[in-house]
From TrEMBL:
Span of the signal peptide: none
Name of the molecule in the record: Carbohydrate diacid transcriptional activator CdaR
InterPro entries assigned to the protein according to its UniProt record, in alphabetical order: CdaR-like_regulators, CdaR_GGDEF, NO_sig/Golgi_transp_ligand-bd, PucR_C-HTH_dom, PucR_C-HTH_sf, V4R
Family according to the record: Belongs to the CdaR family.
Gene3D superfamilies: PucR C-terminal helix-turn-helix domain, Trafficking protein particle complex subunit 3
Lineage: Bacteria, Bacillati, Bacillota, Bacilli, Bacillales
Domain called 4-vinyl reductase 4VR: residue spans: 1-52
Native species: Solibacillus isronensis B3W22
Length: 481
């Protein structure tokens, strides 16, 4: 009123309450006093109507506000609530004590989940930031899509009338790095205690994940440095063996190497470095989940994965299937990129991994938009040529051997003819049969090719060079027939 603002309803509730109580006591029957006009609404004075409760009929809706409550009863209620809160705090602190003990004894997330499962009796699971369940209690069954549950604070989510989850994000480095969830069945809802426990759990999990991240980061930096030094030839064999032993990589074990190449989507070099670092981290997680002992490093614009081969063989899967799983794993996390992987053969000596690296680079030269996985052992004679590091030299070699023919032969009819001729051992009859041509027609084509390339069709040395050039073009998918 002092500010000149008027209310749209009466506000003298306290006075009405006093009047109702007084009149009810004096008249020994329940009297309800309702204000109908109020100075706060702009009237000159306040007006009330006083009537017995039963006469108000359906208009009565304020009586409950004036009910008297015993102070002792209120104190009892407050005491009961405080006792519940005290018991919750006591139980929550006991859980926190156990969590802290598990944290300090470095027992990991599985111990935390088992401990909480025993304390609460609830099925519990923990996901990573991509909604993959990394740890769970024995009684967890998940038949709903976690990716669709997007939260950034603790929330209870109803999945079905009978099923719900209490879910909280796990933060570190100011980013959500996972989620912790309690499962509720048969329509049950979480208690305040369980809200307190899950928040404490998320904090503990955050510390454990941060410690693991630091540990993995430090360990991987050492491994990356070691792998880079070996590839750059900075270490002698005895140094390689000594460091490999400390890194738990038996130097005389068999090894396999993959080189991953990706498309570049950023002009800013710092953005590309950030993507590579995250890609390395995800690849390490992929390998660790499968208990594969590996080193992951970066060399120029490629990622190198050195795998202790016996740890891969324990998966009982073929190399192509494994690499395909790795590619899909990367594509799910980096949807705007294309990935290619070159795979080496297997060697028995860690000091020879330079050979493997060169094999993967040669294999990658056979990549094309339809071929994302390239094995060195699938290359034939062109594999030797692909180990030349300078692409310009390879291109010049191809053009020297086939340039004049490719310039004329736009439909690749003559190119296919010479390729089939060499493939069939320079045999006219076999070549004619393979091409479904007449002998005379084939002879005409071959003479034309001989004239264009200026070679004799019985000059095996020159034909071998032409064959190598043709194989390079076929592997690179630059000619298709």
């Amino acid at each position: 009123m002092a500010d000149g603002n008027l209310s749209d309803r009466p506000i003298c509730h306290t006075l009405c309450g006093y009047a109702s109580g007084y009149l009810s006591t004096v008249l020994e029957k329940t009297i309800l006093v309702k204000e109908v006009e109020c100075r706060a609404m702009g009237y000159e004075q306040c007006k009330v109507i006083c009537m017995p409760l039963e006469e108000w009929g359906h208009q009565e809706h304020e009586y409950s506000y004036y009910q008297s409550t015993s102070i002792i009863q209120e104190l009892d209620e407050i005491t009961a609530k405080l006792k519940i809160e005290r018991d919750y705090l006591k139980q929550a602190n006991e859980v926190q004590r156990k969590l802290t003990h598990a944290l300090l004894s470095k027992q990991g997330l599985q111990k935390i989940v088992n401990l909480l499962n025993e304390s609460t009796g609830l099925p519990i699971f923990i996901e990573n930031e991509t909604n993959e369940v990394i740890i769970k209690s024995a009684d967890v069954m998940i038949d709903f899509e976690l990716e669709k549950i997007d939260i950034d604070t603790t929330e209870f989510i109803t999945i079905t009338p009978e099923l719900g989850i209490l879910r909280t994000p796990i933060y570190f480095e100011e980013q959500i790095k996972g989620y912790c969830s309690f499962i509720y069945q048969t329509g049950k809802k979480p208690t305040e205690l369980e809200y307190m426990i899950i928040d404490k759990t998320a904090l503990t999990a955050s510390v454990i994940l941060l410690n693991e991240n630091i540990k993995i980061g430090t360990e991987q930096n050492i491994k990356r440095s070691f792998l880079s030094d070996v590839l750059d030839g900075k270490l002698e064999q005895d140094e390689i063996y000594k460091i490999a032993h400390y890194l738990n990589f038996p130097p005389t074990e068999s090894y396999w190497l993959l080189t991953l190449e990706r498309t570049l989507n950023h002009s800013n070099i710092s953005d590309e470095i950030e993507v590579n670092e995250e890609l390395i981290r995800q690849i390490i997680l992929f390998l660790n989940e499968r208990n594969i002992n590996a080193l992951v490093s970066q060399k120029t614009d490629k990622l190198i994965i050195l795998i202790e081969y016996p740890t891969f063989k324990r998966l009982n899967t073929v190399p192509h299937t494994f690499i395909n799983q790795l590619l899909k794993y990367c594509l799910r996390r980096f949807k705007s990129y294309e990935f290619y992987i070159g795979a080496s053969t297997v060697i028995e000596d860690l000091s020879q991994i330079n050979i493997l690296y060169n094999e993967t680079l040669a294999a990658l030269k056979a990549k094309n938009p339809e071929k994302h996985i390239c094995f060195y052992e699938d290359l034939e004679i062109e594999g030797v040529l692909f180990q030349i590091k300078d692409e310009v030299l390879i291109d010049r070699f191809v053009m020297q051997q086939l340039g004049k023919l490719l310039e004329i032969d736009k439909d690749y009819d003559l190119t296919k003819t010479i390729y089939t001729y060499i493939e069939n051992g320079i045999n006219i009859n076999k070549t004619a049969k393979a091409l479904s041509m007449s002998i005379s027609g084939l002879r005409y084509r071959l003479s034309k090719i001989s004239e264009i390339l200026n070679i004799g069709l019985d000059d095996t040395k020159r034909l071998f060079s032409v064959y190598m050039a043709l194989k390079v073009l076929k592997v690179k998918n630059q000619i298709i027939f």
